[in-house]
Amino acid sequence: MSTAKKQYKRITTNTLIEMKANGEKISMLTAYDYTMAKIVDEARIDVILVGDSASNVMAGHETTLPITLDQMIYHASSVVRAIDRALVVVDLPFGTYQSDPKEALRSAIRIMKESGGHTIKVEGGKEVKDSIKRILNAGIPVMGHLGLTPQSIYKFGTYTVRAKEEQEAKQLLEDAKMLEKIGCFAIVLEKIPAKLAQEVAESIKIPVIGIGAGNGVDGQVLVTHDMLGMTHEFNPRFLRRYMNLYEEMTNAFKQYGVDVKNKSFPNAKEQY
Ligand code: KIV
Question: Most CB atoms within 10 A, among 15, 36, 88, 97?
Fold first, then answer.
Protein backbone atom coordinates (compact mmCIF):
# COMPACT_ATOMS: atom_id res chain seq x y z
CA MET A 1 0.00 0.00 0.00
CA SER A 2 1.33 3.44 -0.92
CA THR A 3 1.88 5.90 1.92
CA ALA A 4 1.91 8.90 -0.48
CA LYS A 5 -0.62 11.53 0.56
CA LYS A 6 -2.71 13.56 -1.87
CA GLN A 7 -1.31 17.09 -2.26
CA TYR A 8 -4.19 19.42 -1.49
CA LYS A 9 -3.78 22.94 -2.89
CA ARG A 10 -6.47 24.39 -0.68
CA ILE A 11 -8.12 22.80 2.34
CA THR A 12 -11.91 22.87 2.56
CA THR A 13 -14.39 21.24 4.90
CA ASN A 14 -14.82 18.52 2.26
CA THR A 15 -11.07 17.94 2.16
CA LEU A 16 -11.11 17.13 5.87
CA ILE A 17 -13.92 14.62 5.42
CA GLU A 18 -11.99 13.07 2.51
CA MET A 19 -8.84 12.90 4.66
CA LYS A 20 -10.71 10.99 7.34
CA ALA A 21 -12.16 8.61 4.76
CA ASN A 22 -8.63 8.00 3.41
CA GLY A 23 -7.09 7.56 6.85
CA GLU A 24 -4.96 10.70 6.54
CA LYS A 25 -4.54 12.50 9.87
CA ILE A 26 -5.46 16.19 10.03
CA SER A 27 -3.07 18.76 11.51
CA MET A 28 -4.44 21.88 13.19
CA LEU A 29 -2.76 24.72 15.10
CA THR A 30 -3.92 28.05 16.46
CA ALA A 31 -2.90 31.47 15.14
CA TYR A 32 -4.13 34.91 16.09
CA ASP A 33 -2.01 37.22 13.92
CA TYR A 34 -0.72 37.61 10.36
CA THR A 35 2.94 36.72 10.89
CA MET A 36 2.33 33.52 12.84
CA ALA A 37 -0.48 32.45 10.50
CA LYS A 38 1.79 32.87 7.47
CA ILE A 39 4.44 30.58 8.98
CA VAL A 40 1.87 27.97 10.03
CA ASP A 41 0.25 28.02 6.57
CA GLU A 42 3.59 27.77 4.76
CA ALA A 43 4.39 24.74 6.94
CA ARG A 44 1.28 23.15 5.35
CA ILE A 45 -0.72 22.72 8.53
CA ASP A 46 -4.21 21.80 7.32
CA VAL A 47 -6.39 23.88 9.64
CA ILE A 48 -5.70 27.16 11.42
CA LEU A 49 -7.88 27.82 14.42
CA VAL A 50 -8.37 31.41 15.47
CA GLY A 51 -9.16 30.17 18.95
CA ASP A 52 -10.70 32.15 21.76
CA SER A 53 -7.53 31.00 23.56
CA ALA A 54 -6.37 34.39 22.19
CA SER A 55 -8.00 35.65 25.38
CA ASN A 56 -5.31 33.84 27.39
CA VAL A 57 -2.37 33.84 25.00
CA MET A 58 -2.64 37.29 23.44
CA ALA A 59 -4.50 39.29 26.10
CA GLY A 60 -3.33 37.59 29.29
CA HIS A 61 -6.78 36.82 30.71
CA GLU A 62 -7.13 33.87 33.04
CA THR A 63 -9.99 32.36 30.99
CA THR A 64 -11.41 32.52 27.47
CA LEU A 65 -14.57 34.27 28.67
CA PRO A 66 -13.62 37.96 28.33
CA ILE A 67 -12.71 38.02 24.63
CA THR A 68 -15.29 39.85 22.52
CA LEU A 69 -16.70 39.29 19.04
CA ASP A 70 -14.94 42.44 17.77
CA GLN A 71 -11.61 41.18 19.12
CA MET A 72 -12.11 37.75 17.52
CA ILE A 73 -12.91 39.45 14.21
CA TYR A 74 -9.71 41.51 14.48
CA HIS A 75 -7.59 38.39 15.10
CA ALA A 76 -9.36 36.35 12.42
CA SER A 77 -9.05 39.00 9.71
CA SER A 78 -5.30 39.28 10.40
CA VAL A 79 -4.99 35.49 10.02
CA VAL A 80 -7.10 35.31 6.87
CA ARG A 81 -4.84 37.85 5.11
CA ALA A 82 -1.91 35.43 5.56
CA ILE A 83 -3.47 32.24 4.27
CA ASP A 84 -3.00 30.49 0.92
CA ARG A 85 -3.85 26.89 1.80
CA ALA A 86 -5.25 26.23 5.28
CA LEU A 87 -8.89 26.16 6.30
CA VAL A 88 -9.49 28.99 8.79
CA VAL A 89 -11.82 28.14 11.69
CA VAL A 90 -12.87 30.97 14.01
CA ASP A 91 -14.22 30.48 17.54
CA LEU A 92 -17.54 32.08 18.41
CA PRO A 93 -16.69 33.71 21.74
CA PHE A 94 -18.56 33.23 25.01
CA GLY A 95 -21.87 35.07 25.21
CA THR A 96 -22.40 35.46 21.46
CA TYR A 97 -24.42 32.31 20.72
CA GLN A 98 -25.80 30.75 23.92
CA SER A 99 -28.79 32.98 24.58
CA ASP A 100 -30.75 32.46 21.37
CA PRO A 101 -30.32 31.09 17.85
CA LYS A 102 -30.94 34.46 16.16
CA GLU A 103 -28.12 36.08 18.10
CA ALA A 104 -25.92 33.07 17.32
CA LEU A 105 -26.58 33.52 13.61
CA ARG A 106 -25.91 37.26 13.77
CA SER A 107 -22.57 36.59 15.52
CA ALA A 108 -21.56 33.92 13.01
CA ILE A 109 -22.49 36.18 10.08
CA ARG A 110 -20.36 39.00 11.51
CA ILE A 111 -17.36 36.65 11.71
CA MET A 112 -17.82 35.40 8.15
CA LYS A 113 -18.47 38.85 6.64
CA GLU A 114 -16.00 40.96 8.60
CA SER A 115 -13.06 38.54 8.98
CA GLY A 116 -13.27 36.39 5.84
CA GLY A 117 -12.88 33.24 7.99
CA HIS A 118 -14.08 30.04 6.35
CA THR A 119 -15.96 28.37 9.19
CA ILE A 120 -16.82 28.87 12.83
CA LYS A 121 -16.42 26.69 15.93
CA VAL A 122 -18.98 26.43 18.73
CA GLU A 123 -18.56 24.82 22.15
CA GLY A 124 -21.24 22.50 23.51
CA GLY A 125 -23.74 19.77 22.64
CA LYS A 126 -27.52 19.52 22.96
CA GLU A 127 -27.79 22.80 24.90
CA VAL A 128 -26.63 24.77 21.83
CA LYS A 129 -28.20 22.53 19.16
CA ASP A 130 -30.75 25.13 18.00
CA SER A 131 -28.11 27.83 17.66
CA ILE A 132 -25.86 25.53 15.63
CA LYS A 133 -28.75 24.49 13.38
CA ARG A 134 -29.63 28.11 12.70
CA ILE A 135 -26.03 28.89 11.71
CA LEU A 136 -25.79 25.80 9.52
CA ASN A 137 -29.08 26.71 7.79
CA ALA A 138 -27.49 29.99 6.70
CA GLY A 139 -24.76 28.04 4.88
CA ILE A 140 -22.04 28.62 7.46
CA PRO A 141 -19.98 25.51 8.22
CA VAL A 142 -19.70 24.67 11.93
CA MET A 143 -17.05 22.73 13.83
CA GLY A 144 -18.29 21.40 17.20
CA HIS A 145 -16.27 21.25 20.42
CA LEU A 146 -17.00 18.77 23.23
CA GLY A 147 -15.30 17.51 26.37
CA LEU A 148 -13.39 20.15 28.30
CA THR A 149 -15.02 23.23 26.80
CA PRO A 150 -13.10 26.16 28.33
CA GLN A 151 -16.03 28.58 28.07
CA SER A 152 -17.75 26.43 30.74
CA ILE A 153 -14.80 26.43 33.11
CA TYR A 154 -16.79 28.03 35.94
CA LYS A 155 -19.36 25.22 35.65
CA PHE A 156 -16.63 22.53 35.69
CA GLY A 157 -14.58 24.28 38.39
CA THR A 158 -11.34 22.68 37.20
CA TYR A 159 -9.37 21.93 34.02
CA THR A 160 -9.18 18.17 34.75
CA VAL A 161 -10.10 15.42 32.28
CA ARG A 162 -13.82 15.33 31.37
CA ALA A 163 -16.16 12.39 30.67
CA LYS A 164 -14.42 9.87 32.91
CA GLU A 165 -17.81 8.95 34.41
CA GLU A 166 -20.18 6.78 32.39
CA GLN A 167 -23.06 9.27 32.30
CA GLU A 168 -20.94 12.15 30.95
CA ALA A 169 -19.22 9.81 28.45
CA LYS A 170 -22.60 8.59 27.19
CA GLN A 171 -23.85 12.17 26.80
CA LEU A 172 -20.67 13.16 24.95
CA LEU A 173 -21.08 10.30 22.47
CA GLU A 174 -24.73 11.26 21.94
CA ASP A 175 -23.78 14.91 21.44
CA ALA A 176 -21.11 13.96 18.86
CA LYS A 177 -23.65 11.89 16.89
CA MET A 178 -26.16 14.74 17.10
CA LEU A 179 -23.57 17.26 15.82
CA GLU A 180 -22.85 14.99 12.86
CA LYS A 181 -26.56 14.49 12.18
CA ILE A 182 -27.42 18.19 12.09
CA GLY A 183 -24.53 18.88 9.69
CA CYS A 184 -21.33 19.91 11.53
CA PHE A 185 -18.27 19.15 9.39
CA ALA A 186 -15.90 18.21 12.27
CA ILE A 187 -15.65 18.08 16.05
CA VAL A 188 -12.87 18.99 18.48
CA LEU A 189 -12.64 16.73 21.54
CA GLU A 190 -10.67 18.27 24.37
CA LYS A 191 -9.14 16.46 27.34
CA ILE A 192 -11.17 13.27 27.52
CA PRO A 193 -10.03 9.63 27.89
CA ALA A 194 -8.32 8.31 24.73
CA LYS A 195 -10.57 5.24 24.63
CA LEU A 196 -13.74 7.34 24.58
CA ALA A 197 -12.28 9.71 21.94
CA GLN A 198 -11.48 6.74 19.71
CA GLU A 199 -14.99 5.36 20.19
CA VAL A 200 -16.44 8.72 19.12
CA ALA A 201 -14.14 8.91 16.07
CA GLU A 202 -15.14 5.39 15.03
CA SER A 203 -18.86 6.12 15.52
CA ILE A 204 -19.13 9.09 13.15
CA LYS A 205 -17.97 9.90 9.60
CA ILE A 206 -16.98 13.53 10.21
CA PRO A 207 -13.41 14.14 11.45
CA VAL A 208 -12.68 14.24 15.16
CA ILE A 209 -9.72 16.44 16.09
CA GLY A 210 -8.26 15.87 19.52
CA ILE A 211 -6.39 17.90 22.08
CA GLY A 212 -5.50 15.71 25.02
CA ALA A 213 -7.74 13.01 23.53
CA GLY A 214 -5.15 10.41 22.45
CA ASN A 215 -4.10 9.04 19.10
CA GLY A 216 -7.25 7.20 18.05
CA VAL A 217 -8.87 10.31 16.59
CA ASP A 218 -8.62 11.79 13.07
CA GLY A 219 -6.34 14.72 13.78
CA GLN A 220 -4.63 16.79 16.45
CA VAL A 221 -4.71 20.43 17.51
CA LEU A 222 -2.40 22.35 19.83
CA VAL A 223 -2.10 25.97 20.84
CA THR A 224 0.88 27.20 18.79
CA HIS A 225 2.39 29.32 21.56
CA ASP A 226 2.36 26.26 23.85
CA MET A 227 3.92 23.83 21.35
CA LEU A 228 6.64 26.38 20.55
CA GLY A 229 7.43 26.68 24.26
CA MET A 230 6.66 30.42 24.31
CA THR A 231 4.46 29.81 27.34
CA HIS A 232 5.94 27.90 30.24
CA GLU A 233 3.43 28.02 33.07
CA PHE A 234 0.99 25.65 31.32
CA ASN A 235 2.15 22.02 31.46
CA PRO A 236 -0.60 19.49 30.76
CA ARG A 237 0.44 15.91 29.98
CA PHE A 238 -0.84 16.14 26.39
CA LEU A 239 1.37 19.08 25.45
CA ARG A 240 4.44 18.24 23.37
CA ARG A 241 6.83 21.17 23.18
CA TYR A 242 8.72 21.31 19.88
CA MET A 243 10.90 24.26 20.91
CA ASN A 244 11.83 26.23 23.99
CA LEU A 245 11.18 29.65 22.50
CA TYR A 246 10.65 31.21 25.92
CA GLU A 247 14.30 30.59 26.71
CA GLU A 248 15.57 31.37 23.21
CA MET A 249 13.64 34.65 23.02
CA THR A 250 14.69 35.66 26.51
CA ASN A 251 18.33 35.08 25.57
CA ALA A 252 17.92 37.06 22.35
CA PHE A 253 16.26 40.00 24.19
CA LYS A 254 18.98 39.95 26.85
CA GLN A 255 21.72 39.94 24.22
CA TYR A 256 20.06 42.85 22.39
CA GLY A 257 19.84 44.77 25.68
CA VAL A 258 23.53 44.17 26.33
CA ASP A 259 24.47 45.16 22.74
CA VAL A 260 22.54 48.45 23.03
CA LYS A 261 24.00 49.26 26.43
CA ASN A 262 27.59 48.50 25.40
CA LYS A 263 27.11 50.34 22.07
CA SER A 264 27.98 47.31 19.91
CA PHE A 265 24.60 47.62 18.16
CA PRO A 266 24.35 49.02 15.55
CA ASN A 267 27.80 48.49 14.08
CA ALA A 268 29.25 50.24 11.00
CA LYS A 269 27.47 47.87 8.58
CA GLU A 270 24.13 48.31 10.28
CA GLN A 271 23.79 52.02 9.59
CA TYR A 272 23.45 54.40 6.62
O1 KIV B 1 -9.38 28.26 21.63
C2 KIV B 1 -8.65 27.29 21.37
O3 KIV B 1 -7.43 27.40 21.21
C4 KIV B 1 -9.28 25.97 21.27
C5 KIV B 1 -8.39 24.78 21.18
C6 KIV B 1 -7.79 24.48 22.50
C7 KIV B 1 -9.07 23.61 20.59
O8 KIV B 1 -10.46 25.88 21.30
Answer: 97
